[in-house]
Amino acid sequence: QVQVKESGGGVVQPGGSLTLSCALSGLSIASMGWYRQAPGKQREFVALIVTDDSTQYADSVKGRFTISRDKVKHVGYLQMNDLRPEDTAVYYCRWGTVDSYWGQGTQVTVSS
After folding, report:
1. Of the candidates 92, 94, 95, 96, the residue with the CA atom closest to the CA atom of residue 106
2. Which of 14, 61, 79, 106 could, after both became Cys, cross-link 65 (CB 3.0–4.6 A)?
């Protein structure tokens, strides 16, 4: 049975940092990505890491967020620095591209 479990969300002040984790079990997949959905908005792409470890980022998070993963443990991470109120959203991880598996989502709130 394939399971995806996210953790690491929370409330942080502007300028603060958080790290999200996403663990995959029951299957081996190399590529994973992070997406987010703010209230009243569509889900949007945040970051992606693929088989050869190359990465892609949305323009809005470039230079502030870093995606990584542990290939042995099948755990992915999203290090978020210099957080802004507009980063507030539910963050979802996704393993795979064509056949993919989504996490349940974790809330990130950036507020003073």
Report:
1. 92
2. 61
DSSP state of 62: T
Q: Give bridge partners of residue 94 from the DSSP assignment.
A: 33, 102
pLDDT in tens, the chain (112 residues): 899 999 999 999 999 999 999 999 998 888 999 999 999 999 999 999 999 999 999 999 999 999 999 989 999 999 999 999 999 999 999 999 888 999 999 999 999 9
Q: Residue 83's closest CA among 106, 111, 48, 55?
A: 111
Torsion sign over Cα 76, 101, 37, 62: positive
- Three-class secondary structure of residue 85 per DSSP: helix
């399971």: which residue's tokens? Answer: 3
